[in-house]
Design brief:
- By secondary structure, this protein is an alpha+beta fold.
- The chain has 2 domains: 137 residues, Four Helix Bundle (Hemerythrin (Met), subunit A); 100 residues, SCP2 sterol-binding domain (Nonspecific Lipid-transfer Protein, Chain A).
- The chain has 7 helices and 5 strands, in the order H-H-H-H-H-E-E-E-E-H-E-H.
- A hairpin with a 2-residue loop joins strand 1 and strand 2.
- It is globular.
Length: 261
Amino acid sequence: MPVAEELDYLEVVASESERFRAVVTSLQAGAGLSSPVPTCPEWDAADLIWHLAEVQYFWTSIVANRPADHTMVAELVRPGDDELIEVLGLWSGRLRSELEAADVGEGCWSWHPAGHNVGWARRRQAHEALIHRVDAELTAAAAGAPFAAAPIDAALAADGIDEMLAVMLGGAYPSPTRHFEADGTSARLQTGDRSWTVALGRYDNVDAVQFRTDVEEPTVTLDGPAVELDLWLWRRGALDATTMTGSAEVAERLQALGNIE
């Protein structure tokens, strides 16, 4: 699926990273960075901060230095917990600067076969920052910190649905050498005038989805607000305002695929 041209991914990277830092700074001053992250059970808040710092450092290095392979990026040493937010701020700023300085069509390494350009990296890092900002807010809420969740733009959330299905779950995996084995079930997600239909199955023994245009009656249809569907796919929210028609079991299987940190 194409990258949404109307979205300012650079602004999203900057604003969501800034919001993330504000939440975890408040958390550090209150309940502390040992607070567990409810959406990533093996992490505490310090681990969450370090994860986003590592990711933003890594993609800064990819875009700035253009290594031929990800193994050429030097490992970032984890600092003490009292320095984590400062280190995150450093790499958030550098990531924004490097992404802005490069043209979206310029090539760079990516783990995804359709992602070997800066435009793809901009989009991926925008959604990375958004989802982990939500993680930070949920962590603060679970710790009793007085931090209200910031709103999410509906167009960004719809793009997040597309990116999750196409990129993270393999829906648009452009490889004729990979065989997709459908299991006979399908799902359709609808929000406003946009919809996505996917078959569930496996790519080379890995659970995944594949975009389909030949499904008239999907096994399950989910019709709801873009923000709710995006967060649900990422296992960061419930389907409170979404209408589900069909198999709840298939919906649960689709959501289970989004168990990604």
